[in-house]
Amino acid sequence: MPIIEVEKLHKRYGETIAVDDVSFSVEPGEIFGILGPNGAGKTTTVECIEGLRRPDSGEVRVLGLQPGRDRAELAQRVGVQLQESALQEKLKVREALDLYASFYRQPADGDELLQMLGLQDKRETYYRKLSGGQKQRLSIAMALIGNPEVAILDELTTGLDPQARRDTWELIERVRDRGVTILLVTHFMDEAERLCDRLALIESGTVVATDTPAGLIQRVDRGQRVRFRPSAPVDDALLTAIPDVTGVSRHGDEVVVTGSGNIVALMVTALAGEQIVPLDVRVEQANLEDAFVALTGQKLIHDDHESTR
Ligand code: ADP
């Protein structure tokens, strides 16, 4: 049985159609991502899953239950990452965790969670004294304190520095390894590509595609692009003669070869036969960003790690 099932979800706010026919299902033990630009309908979809909003039409099932009807039961079994403003500034880390633990029938071990999140030294620290990264990790602890079967994490690494983001990704993988199914909402390509087993690409309230990151990339695979500077003049014919090379072009003194398969090795060998060495070799492959652009005709607006939400 899928952990989360969303079928033909539709939700509008007045004239604005926020979600227009969204369907996907999340299997046990997955890290499933909802990826899309700001305004795509991600939060509205997740709020319907959390039972905070009632869909205009469509079905949502979480652990076989209906979020609108079975909210109390689901609150015990689904962990939701708190938004930053939700915690009182004057609570100490340990007090906040104890308070939230008291809401649950079978809470997790708070000390163990703090240890896992690298917050063990902050037990007696006031919430307001935590750094951005520490607050973020505490919000993940809050999502896990109820020992949930499912955790819903929204814009997990917004505002974190690169090292803290990588640490958080490792942490989420450890959480998944403990058997928690994870629904991750993000507008960061790198995060989705690195962390998610499967993804639903959402744009303008609809699901454009659902697949593994590799599967999505493969759909638009433009092959490889290899760039290098030859140590001596090279004839295009030498390169176009290589099987799987589809094109050769030049930019200044740089040669750009496109193709698929093992073209790098074959190219190096062909050049070596002419006593030419490829210098400054760079291999570029399609990534999730390329897939997103190809599938939606749109770019995600944010290249930085700040949110405008
Ligand atoms: P995302 O999470 O992908 O940024 P949202 O679900 O927040 O997308 O928003 C989808 C669309 O619905 C946007 O056009 C947004 O402006 C609109 N919207 C979201 N919440 C409300 C609301 N409470 N009232 C009116 N419009 C809303």
From TrEMBL:
It is found in: Cell membrane. Its main location: membrane. GO terms for cellular component: plasma membrane. InterPro entries: AAA+_ATPase (IPR003593), ABC_transporter-like_ATP-bd (IPR003439), ABC_transporter-like_CS (IPR017871), ABC_transporter_ATP-binding (IPR050763), P-loop_NTPase (IPR027417). The keyword Cell membrane applies. Keywords: Antibiotic resistance, ATP-binding, Cell membrane, Membrane, Nucleotide-binding, Translocase, Transport. Pfam families: ABC_tran. Gene3D superfamilies: P-loop containing nucleotide triphosphate hydrolases (3.40.50.300). It is a peripheral membrane protein. The keyword Nucleotide-binding applies. GO terms for biological process: response to antibiotic. One of its GO terms (molecular function) is ATP hydrolysis activity. Residues 4-229 form the ABC transporter domain. It comes from the Bacteria. PANTHER family: ABC TRANSPORTER ATP-BINDING PROTEIN (PTHR42711). This is ABC transporter ATP-binding protein. It comes from Phytoactinopolyspora alkaliphila.
